[in-house]
Amino acid sequence: MNEETRTLNAFLTAVMQLQEPLPVKVMQELHEIEQDLPASIYKLYALTEQFAPLHDAYVAALQSQPSEGERLKAGSTATLPVSSNDLDQLLVQLRYQITLLQASQEEDQEISDEMQLRTKSSPVQHLIQELGWTREQAAAIRYRLAAFREDWEAPGMEIYDDL
Question: Which pLDDT score is estimated for 72?
């Protein structure tokens, strides 16, 4: 496995493990990196250093990948060549993850804008304040629950609203 493949694998793993949204600045830089892929793969590590949860997950993902030496030590005399197709597949996955992150960020911004339009007496705002959550904590929870949105909004699910 070459360095580009290791980097992309680790970065994808890290992004998928995040429990909170990426900061706006990190998303902007990720979008810039995406524009110049694969030549800009080397910039991903520096990007992870700007957001501690991403960096921690990235380093852990890198460390969990066997190095070339470990594979040789384990008795495998042949190394697996990395085809351009493997790299292309990882790049497609990375671009897909970036698209998902951008969509989530745009949706969060829309919700933030909507919340700002509501008055201070909004029941949702009171609930968040009563829980003692910050706006960032509420956004992180929303990010984690986003995977369930399609199910919540499916036709017929409103019968559970009164439970």
Answer: 53
